[in-house]
Structures are given as C-alpha cells and as structure tokens.
Design brief:
By secondary structure, the protein is of the alpha/beta class. It has 20 helices and twelve strands. α2 (about 40-65) runs antiparallel to α5 (about 105-140), α11 (about 250-305) runs antiparallel to α12 (about 310-350) and α19 packs across α20 (about 600-620). The longest helix has about 55 residues, at about 250-305.
Amino acid sequence: MSKQSVDKVNNAQTEGLGQIKSSDVDWLFSGKKVGGEYKDRFLAKLLRKSWGKILVTTLIYLLQASPTWIMPLITSDVIDLVTYRPDGYITRMIIDAVILFVVIVQNVPTTMWRSNIVNKWKRSTTAEIKSGVMRKLQRLSITYHKEIEEGKIQSKLLRDIENVEGYYQCMMFSFLPSLIGVVVSVGIALWRSPIVTLFFLAIIPLNVLLSMAFRKRIRQDNRTYRKENEQLSAKITTSIQMMTLTKAHGLVETEERMVNAKIGSVAQAGITLDKTVARFGSMMFVSGHVLSAVCLLFCCILALNDIITTGEVVLFQSLFSSISGSVMNLINSYPALAQGKEAIHSLSEIICAEDIERDEGHTHIQGVQGAVEFQDVHYHYPHEDDKPVVKNFNLTVKPGERIAVVGSSGSGKTTLMNLIIGLLAPSQGRILIDGTPLSDIPLQEYRRYLSVVPQNSILFSGTLRENITYGLSHYSEEQLKKAVEDADIEEFLPSLPHGLNTMVGEHGDKLSGGQKQRISIARALIRNPKILILDEATSALDNVAEYHVQKAIDKLVHQRTTFIVAHRLSTIRNADRIVVMENGEMVEVGTYEELIAKNGKFAELEKLSRIREEEALNAG
C-alpha cells in the first residue's frame, strides 16, 4: 500500500480527536476463541463498547422528540375543549399552549447535546477501527499478506470503514429513534384506547412482512456489490503497478478491456442493488398510505358510535401516522444497516484473522552480538499439504561472519532469510540469537539490531533524507553524512536539484535502480545493525550500477553478521562461507575455493552464472 493511502486512512476523520493510542483499540482484539471462532464477534464488540453512550443518547432523545408525541395529545385535547367547552376550558387551553411551547423550545438544546455526543462517539470509534485495522495488518503474518491482494485491503480500509460510519449514523439517527417512536406511540394509544391499539397491532405487521420479503435479497445484493468493488480495487492497483509493462508489450487496449469489464461488473451490481432498494421503497410507500386510510376509516366509525371523541380521531390518526412512519423508517433503514453490517463483516475478516505473526518473547535483550545458530530447522507454509520448504537445516554462525546462501529458484533461500528476520517461525527446530531462542526474544527488540536490503528497493514518496532516516526519531547529521558517504550516494547527489531534500517520487520512480538500492543501503547503515541481510541486492542492476552498489555493500558488511542471498555468484567470493541450498536442504557449505574444488552443486551453479553473465555482457 502506498504511503499516501496509509496516511489517508490514518488521518481521515481523526481531526480534533487527539492521538489514537494502542490502548484505545485494545477492545477490538478482546474476546476468547471457542471452537476456532471468536466468542465475541466484531459487531457485538462495537455495541458492547458503546452501550453506555447508546443509553444516555436514548434518554436525551426522549426529551428531544417529545414534541412528536405531546403535540397530538394537546391537539386532541384542544379540539375536544373547543367542541364540548367544559368548565374552565380557556384555562386548560392556556396550560396546553404553555406546555407545548416549553416542549418545542427544549428541542434545540437537547438536539445539539445529543448530536454532539453521537458525532464525537461515531468519529472516535471509526478512527479507532482504522487504527486497529492498521495495527492488526502490521501484526498479521507474511503468509496472510501474500494471500490477500493489496487493492482489497485498500477497499476494506476506505470504503468499508466509511460504511461502518454510515451504520452508526443510521442506527443512532434513524433506527433507534424510530424504534423508540413505535414504543412510545403504541404506549399512548394503549393508554387512550386498547381497541384502537389492537387495530394498530393487527395491521402494522403487514409492513414488517413486506420487509422480510426483501431482506434476503437486499443482503445478497449488498454482499455482491461489496465483493465486486474489492475485485475492482485490486485490479486497478495491479493495473497501475504494471503500467510500464503494459505499455512496453502493447497491451494498453487489452488492459483497458479487462479493467472496463470489472468496472461494468461493479456498475451492474450497483444497478441491481439500486433496483432492489427502489422496489422496496415504493412498495413500502404504497402500503403505508393504504394502511393510513384504513386507520382513518376505522377511527371515524368508532367516533360515530361514540366510542372515541372527535379529538381522539385526530390523536389516533396522528399516532398511526407516527407509528407507520417509524415502522417505515425502521424498514427503510434496513438497506443502510445491511450495507454497514456487510462492511463490518468485511473488516472482521482482518480483525478476526488468526494468522498472526508469533511474538511471544519474554526475554528482553540489551544488545545483539550477532551469533546465529540454526538447530534442526524445518519450515512448511500453512495450507500447502505440509510440504517442507526448509528441512534439516543446521548452521552455526559466529558474530561478524559473512554467510552467502545460493541455490536455484525455490530452493528455500528467501524462506531462510524470513526465518532469520522472524517473519516466519520454524515449524520444527529453533533459531538461537547469541544463545537465546529467537522465539523467546520480543521481535520488535530484536529487529532494532537487524537491517534488510531487499532485491527491489522499497522507497516511499518523500525526500532522500526521509527515506534514509525512515523510522528514526533521533539521529545526527554526522551519522546521516557518514551513511550517505559509505553508501556511495555522493556519486549522484550533486545531480539532484535539492540534494538530500530532493523528492524521490512515488516508489522512488525518479531514481535509477542503482540509486534506489544505495538509498536502501544508507538506510541500513544509519541503523548500525549487528545482523544484516542482503537479499539479491545487486541482481537487478547493470554492471555500472552494480559496481557502485557493491562498493557500498563492502562497507556495509564490515564487522556485521551478514547473510547474502546471491544471484551473481561472482559477488560472493569474499564470503567466509557459502551455503548451497537445494529443495530446502543445505547440500554444501564451505568457502568459494573449497566449493569450486569440490566440483559439486556450487561449481555447477557458478558455471551457469558465469555463462549468463558472459551472455549478458555480449548482448550489451
């Protein structure tokens, strides 16, 4: 995910709320598992956390909405006073007028009071959800991130969280007020005439039955629309990432057709959802007005038979309209609630995901010397028929030793590096750091003494300075200058318009591959790591770029335990030992000269590497 997307997710709707702390979002991750499922589901957690505010705002709403119920009572009373004119009717009319005035005026402060509480709660909760989802994403294992597309994550973080906010909005300003309106109006009707109340209770369920007929269809259409949006987001992200390749192969029109097909699928799913909602709304409108006319006729018949007064005809018609309107609002709010609930379901896929990076370490460390020992290490990826990617791996590495790891594609080299970083945990066996099992060391503490220079440099849209010092709160200009010098960045720095303050573009696109790689090396150098991992750091570079990067690497590996995954075997002549991997196993280990003399697997790989380099040189 790009840095701008992450910033958008973290900053949107958090203004005025203060800094979100880790402790603020712990409630998202509470709850015990029962039979592999979370006992407290995500929606239950949301409502349980908020029940106090829901209760307070409900009580305030009773005051805020009181004119809705008091107005029909006073209107009914005034009509009867004017019609029958009992003793003291003028005084009673004045009292009615005062009560009505007070009840109406108090609506202003209570509305503002309730709105203030609900809006702050809604904004803070959605901000906590965003922060919590990002926190969970950071803690999910590397295998989880390999299985989910980046675009889908962006869709969940942006669209789904927006729909969760809409869920709160609908629940607090439509669903709960309507539910309260039904209860209060039925209570008033029951107080004034049980017969009319029974009539209400007999015909109003017709609206509910109508809504039930649409409920499943609306839920299905919402889910289809959500999934189509996620697939479109994933496709657009991939399309942008492959833009250069698409143009280079003349596939612009093909890519446009594929994207347009996804856009068309989203539009069609949206149209289907809109039709269902429109049909549902029109049916509710017709049924509501038909039932209101039936109620008026029924009340008139009761009045003609002196069962209720003339004023009560108006009262019950108002109450029925209120109940019917509230029921319609309850039912009409269902699509928004269904959409919000589907968004909550979507986010729960991340919040409740169990594939978490294991970090149960409790042995705190003050430093790392760099000794690494593998003891009968095995690893297999989950859900892949338990086939080991690394097996029977044993190796003892001294502090400051330089270890190269070579092998054909799929031999287990990258998996081995991920095990050292702690991104993966051994399925069997253990890794010791300075004699302490890595599983006992808190990963965040351990990784402060480790740096990684990957094959593809990872830069974000910012300045060179920001990319080199990423994540460092304290550093001196001398440290930065030395890192720049040692990484050989000074070779191209004068050509940049603003030196270290030059913007590198998104993903560093304004720089060459060699320049980006040297920035990655400077980022590693300024951290002064004790354990260094170079994952094919020069394989994607031309000879000139490789020369500068190799110069930087020679300074970077000095007095550090270094693991080098090598593609060009000529770059690892100075390694203290070379580990040769095949099918997840270490088949050879020794110095460059020893392995060449052995004339085994490494000699075969070295010969192929030399042939490829000569072919590339001739082609150039």
